[in-house]
Design goal:
Elements (H helix, E strand, L loop, with lengths): L2 E8 L7 E7 L6 E10 L2 H7 L9 E2 L3 E9 L11 E4 L9 H4 L17 E2 L6 E2 L9 E5 L3 E3 L6 H4 L5 H12 L7 E5 L3 H12 L4 E6 L2 H10 L3 E4 L5 H7 L6 E6 L4 H10 E9 L13 H7 L2 E4 L7 H13 L11 E3 L4 H10 L5 E4 L1
Parallel strand pairs: 4-8, 11-12, 11-14, 12-13, 14-15, 15-16, 17-18
Antiparallel strand pairs: 1-2, 1-4, 2-7, 3-5, 3-9, 3-18, 5-6, 6-10
Helix pairs in contact: 4-5, 5-6, 7-8
The structure holds nicotinamide-adenine-dinucleotide (NAD) and zinc ion (2 copies).
Nicotinamide-adenine-dinucleotide binds next to α1, α4, α5 and β12.
């Protein structure tokens, strides 16, 4: 029997989100219904609401979540009812050209549920990143569920489902940060702070946090930043160079995703260094840069989708590090809130007073 539960809906570009009844079908072949325990508020949810991702309104928002599998459809063997899982938006297909070459973290054909969740009037919903977890329950492809240690806090480990994984992976997987490297991170929200934590896990020697907000810089120190730069108080590139013997950092991670921050990353890195773009630009943004600078400075210019993660490999490993006290996921949870408080959480994200607000369900 389809179930009716509450969900957070973005109906139109820029309009405040609303909590509405949504209908969850029973899981079909390869699908699972997950009873959501906690879901973090990510900047990408706000991008959806602002029409920055696509126009497929209405959206069911929320995508950084942990919960318990309630039921599974035909043919599902990897997870079973009662399993504690972190949801992912990279359920790899196993058969696309990336998967076949042994690079499943680039999978070009990731799975989502086939059936649609709807509003009560039958309007089909677009779940954010194929998840839609600001809801009591959601329907996903079973491969979107990664089983982890059930003793871990849902509010903390759910964040691995998007922003924290994206940041840690931007440093470790995409940026390939090595022991002894210098790393600079532009933008220290949930994603950038996670990149700092990732650089620390990789034993970077120097970790430079850059933000416009001193509060974020203070938190960044707790995550492992060895130096901080307030981007509002002078030239960011010069400030990075001043902290790296005039050279620039080995790896610079742009966790904002604007042309001006990407240029800071580009010019703030050492010759032959690496730029990682993990912040998500909007469709109208353009970049203009002398091609000779791209050539002359060498190195690599990368973007990082979801931290180039492989959920089945990375989630259980990071949960273990968390449980051992080596990765402080609790530090990302600034507040826990109710399902009615998502709009207020967006406002706090704008004001910069939170790293992550996490909806408990
Ligand atoms: N690539 C991915 O897979 C992925 C995954 C999740 C989120 N994201 C994206 O990452 C970005 C960050 O997400 P978040 O949830 O951390 O957002 P957030 O709002 O929590 O953090 C953004 C931070 O950037 C700072 N900032 C803004 N402009 C700046 C500037 N010019 N210079 C320096 N700092 C500046 C803000 O003060 C804030 O601390 C978003 O674009 C989001 O969509 C990407
Ligand atoms: Zn694939
Ligand atoms: Zn996200």
């Amino acid at each position: 029997m389809p179930q009716t539960v509450r969900g957070v809906i973005a109906r139109a570009k820029g309009a405040p989100v609303t909590v509405e009844n949504i209908v969850i079908p029973d899981p079909g072949p390869g699908e699972a219904v997950v009873d959501i325990s906690a879901c973090g508020v990510c900047h990408t949810d706000l991008h959806y609401r602002e029409g920055g991702i696509n126009d497929e309104f209405p959206f069911l928002l929320g995508h950084e979540a942990a919960g318990v599998v309630e039921s599974v459809g035909e043919g599902v063997t990897d997870v079973a009812p009662g399993d504690f899982v972190v949801l992912n938006w990279r359920a790899v297909c196993g058969s696309c050209r990336a998967c076949r070459r042994g690079r499943p973290w680039y999978c070009f054909d990731t799975h989502n549920a086939t059936q649609k969740m709807t509003l009560e009037d039958g309007t089909e919903l677009s779940p954010a990143l194929g998840i839609g977890a600001f809801a009591d329950k959601t329907l996903v492809a079973a491969g979107q569920c990664t089983k982890v240690d059930p003793d871990a806090s849902p509010a903390a480990v759910g964040l691995l489902g998007c922003g924290v994984m994206a940041g840690i992976g931007a440093a470790i997987n995409t940026g390939n940060v090595q022991r002894g490297d210098s790393v600079a991170v532009i933008g220290c929200g949930g994603v950038g702070s996670a990149a700092i934590a990732g650089a620390r896990l990789a034993n970077a020697a120097k970790i430079i946090a850059i933000d416009l907000d001193d509060r974020k810089l203070e938190w960044a120190k707790g995550m492992g930043a060895t130096h901080t730069i307030n981007a509002g108080s002078g030239d960011v590139v010069e400030a990075i160079q001043a902290l790296t013997d005039g050279h620039g950092a080995d790896v610079v991670i742009d966790a904002v995703g604007r042309p001006e921050t990407w240029k800071q990353a580009f010019y703030g890195r050492d010759l032959a260094g690496t730029v990682v773009l993990v912040g998500v630009p909007t469709p109208e943004m353009q970049l203009e840069i002398p091609l000779l600078d791209v050539f002359g400075r060498g190195g690599s210019l990368k973007s990082s989708w979801y931290g180039d993660c492989l959920p089945s490999r990375d989630f259980p490993m990071l949960v273990d590090l968390y449980q051992q006290g080596r990765l402080d996921l609790d530090a990302f949870v600034t507040e826990t809130i109710g399902i009615d408080d998502v709009e207020a959480a967006f406002a706090k994200m704008h004001e910069g007073t939170v790293l992550r607000s996490v909806v408990e369900l």
